[in-house]
Amino acid sequence: xxxxxxxxxxxxxxxYTYLLYPALLWLITVxxxxxxxxxxxxxxxxxxxxxxxxxxxVIAAKINNALELQYPAKVTxxxxxxxxxxxxxxxxxAYADRCEVVFLRQExxxxxxxxxxxxxxxxxxxxxxxDANSMYRPDALKKLVAPFSDPEVGCVCGELRYVDSxxxxxxxxxxxxxxxxxxxxxxxxxxxxxxxxxxxSIYAIRLDLFEELxxxxxxDFIMPIRVCRxxxxxxxxPLAVAEEESAPDFGGEYRRRRRIIARSIYGLWRERxxxxxxxxxxxxxxxxxxxxxxxxxxxxLLAMLFASSGPAGRGEGPYTVLFxxxxxxxxxxxxxxxxxxxxGQSGLFYLPAYFCAINLGALQAIIDAxxxxxxxxxxxxxxx
Length: 384
What we know:
Layout: H1 2-29, E1 46-52, H2 59-67, E2 75-82, H3 88-93, E3 101-106, H4 111-119, E4 126-131, E5 135-136, H5 140-145, E6 153-162, H6 169-192, E7 202-206, H7 219-229, E8 233-244, H8 250-270, H9 281-295, H10 297-313, H11 317-338, H12 347-371
Helix pairs in contact: 1-6, 1-9, 1-10, 6-12, 8-12, 10-11, 11-12
């Protein structure tokens, strides 16, 4: 009986975070309109901060993209090389004669430290954080800045789109599907009141709200939490678009998920007061439903497999079928992982493959967090 409770409890948590929570968000916000923000007549100056580690393949394109953005006020582009050992430094230094570009160099101390360093040289009223491989649409900054006309808005997250989901086979399709699901949650959470975290590819905060973070802290998750705790809103602006290539393989997505979740768990532990439902009822509900339970899904999956194996071995009808279904899903995932550009192009294979890859990364992240591995120094996922 105890194993049966474990099995159905695990299924309940998985169904809640992936299905019931989105349905609740939709029901709560269906009558709410998305706020629209007209383009301000007086655009604030801002600093665009790019932390780069061995980004020689993309950094020139990124700087050119930033220089060509359609923004009517001053944009200071600050590139911090975090101990790069390829040609990143030389490429950025070639832009030294452009007054808009500030180049900083530091030892390999991690993305968060690089961002802290950049802010010390920042100017303007707003900070925009971006990744070296994220290319902005021409009007992205104008759209990203518009919501700051509301004095209650402290942080704005733009929309990341993957532009090559077909080129990388099953992993690209899986990442694209997952990201569309995440965008739905972001839109609904923003309508409800505030996002749970931002996206490191494209988000902005008010300069006077920035706080230096420890090297082990993941900034695009924890900084918005601190903004919320100071009484400001964190909102989603889907018209501010950045584009990236998807991960080249399932292994890259696994490693990225492992690193991000391990840092997020540690960061949320440091900000655990934000989960107090009596002080922050809305945020604690959103964070627990969207993040905490989602991180526990791989534990639930293992619990389901273990709890159903015993009854299935004894021939108990429903559990024999459910145990068999789990084995079939994992078998499909293995095929999708093994043949991402052939059989893995079919949703029958890439959906379970991607689901298993990200949850394997989450499981390893939980272990990393428990044993104290922090991932302060980061290595970006290689893109084609």
